[in-house]
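New to this. Help decode the following:
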Amino acid sequence: MTHAHDDDPAPALLARLKSKQATIGIIGLGYVGLPLCMAIAKSGSKVVGFDIDAKKAGMLLGGESYIKHISNDEVRSLVATGRFRATADFAELAAMDAILICVPTPLSAHLEPDLHFVEETTRTIAKTLRRGQLIILESTTYPGTTVEVCRPILETSGLTCGSDFHLAFSPEREDPGNINFSTSRIPKVVGGDGAVALELASALYGGFVVGVVPVSSAATAEAVKITENVFRAVNIALVNELKVIFGVMGIDIWEVIDAAKTKPFGYMPFYPGPGLGGHCIPIDPFYLTWKAKEFGVSTRFIELAGQINTAMPDHVVSETAKALDAQARKGLNGSRVLVLGVAYKKNIDDSRESPALRLMELFEQRGSDVHFFDPFIPVIPSTREHPSLTGRASATWDAETLASFDVVLIATDHDGVDYAGLVKHARLIVDTRNACARAGLAGPHIVRA
């Protein structure tokens, strides 16, 4: 295929992006893609959401949201403006001015990057790719993916990156459940495959986010996201280790952190927990570990943090066993255990990589009769890692039910849970989130782990 290159399509695209005349396509309507659609449509631009799940597209077109922090009203009103619609027909990608890729980047069983969603999506785009389109990858990945993986696939179309079409990377920075920082209020880091791509992508995001942070390359932007997540993983591992150390010394880690954070410089509070969850922090650092091997560099800090965080559920189970032994003279074998909260963090309905699921399995391996309660997750969805838990329903919340368990383990500290009722009726509480103390509740039957 040959193309005449005398008419550069980039200036026209730039003008359309700046004047909000461009139509933007977003592939993947999950926790990253759907909020992005909402933010773009609210800003006055047209956006089409693409998902392989036709049911999701149908729900959205009917004004129905499937993500807790996005309301049905919000979806309905944006569909009504005509600026937002959703589809499972990927042939429509041809009509988009810009296409944003927001698909998952999980790890394989061997802790290696699994880029098949990114690769399949890029191949789908390549089928309808035309001159003048801007493609942006948002999925978190290792430095080099945009240029080394996506660009060659897109160029199978016969078009050339940098002249016929443009390619950039801008990492998603969603924080589900964080009411202070919605999509449009979080600055966007942007790295382009060339200066024109950077200018185009910056114009696109500049239309609906509070600030754009341009960096020198797509690989640098990829490195920024990995750095943000490694920073959290390492610091959470550090406080998890301190929790164990201070615990054997009889010192309360939560009290230590509260006092330390009064220092106005040089300290930032991170909090321990029962392990790491979510789609980013337990997974993304290993993308860098994998890529570093190509350069003969080891990532000792990252791997150590991973080991500490991965070991936390085992620590919590052994602390629960100790508490049962001390307070009820019972073992885990045959005990009834209620896990409070299976979402990976509070106030959201996402259980991906949640340590609570691992905890449930560990208790069952020790012979416990395990149930869960979560106001946000009525039924545990299907996961690759925990197939045995699929379809389990949340327990009812009442005095009789709470009293029927030998121990209640607080794994996720959702707001709005009746902690006073829990403390009143539960026989034994193992609190991994300091939720009871923060609610001003104390008692000899509350143990921190």
User: Anything to note?
Assistant: Residues 5 and 163 are 8 Å apart (CA to CA). The chain has a mean pLDDT of 93. The chain has two domains: 10-216, 232-448.
